[in-house]
């Protein structure tokens, strides 16, 4: 009977430890969704800038066309750089979130193993008595 009670208590401790592990996948998914949203907004803004630049080139006088194209190229390059910067920042945030999730998962696994080891020791101690 003592063995049964000891094993039930050990099982209880092990399940309690497993229930306390965080859900890192949800955090990573949320970070990925935010990153995708920011990148999409940056792409939309860049596309708008490209369209405005093309319109200005089309409206420009023939003698000012070269100057208008240079100005438009400058604006388009800035918009593309902004998209690249936003994408890099978003990717960095997602990578950071993934790293934190992996760390949390490893800590939770270590705690679970510790509780299991303690429970196994308790079972052995109970069976000796």
Largest sheet: none
| SS-based class | mainly alpha
Average pLDDT figure: 83
The counted number of beta strands is: 0
Helix content: over 70%
How many whole angstroms does the radius of gyration measure? 29 Å
The figure for the number of domains is: 1
**How large is the share of residues in beta strands?**
under 5%
Query: Please, how many helices?
Result: 3
Low-confidence stretches: none
Order of helices and strands: HHH
What are the defining features of this structure?
3 helices, 129 residues, mainly alpha
How does this structure look, described?
The protein has helices at 2-19, 24-59, 65-128. It is mainly alpha-helical and 129 residues long. The chain has one domain. Helix 1 (2-19) runs antiparallel to helix 3 (65-128) and helix 2 (24-59) packs antiparallel against helix 3 (65-128). The N and C termini lie close together (12 Å). The model has no long low-confidence stretch (mean pLDDT 83).
What's the arrangement of secondary structure elements?
Elements: H1 2-19, H2 24-59, H3 65-128
Write a compact overview of the structure shown:
By secondary structure, the chain is mainly alpha-helical. The protein contains 3 helices and no strands. The chain has one domain.
């Amino acid at each position: 009977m003592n063995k049964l009670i000891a094993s039930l208590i050990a099982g209880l401790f092990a399940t309690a430890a497993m229930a306390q592990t965080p859900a890192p996948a949800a955090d990573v998914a949320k970070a990925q969704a935010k990153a995708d949203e920011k990148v999409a907004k940056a792409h939309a803004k860049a596309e708008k800038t490209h369209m405005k630049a093309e319109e200005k080139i089309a409206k420009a006088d023939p003698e000012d066309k070269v100057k208008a194209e240079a100005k438009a190229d400058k604006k388009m390059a800035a918009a593309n750089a902004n998209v690249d910067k936003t994408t890099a920042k978003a990717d960095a945030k997602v990578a950071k979130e993934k790293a934190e999730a992996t760390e949390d998962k490893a800590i939770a696994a270590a705690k679970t193993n510790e509780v299991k080891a303690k429970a196994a020791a308790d079972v052995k101690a109970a069976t000796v008595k």
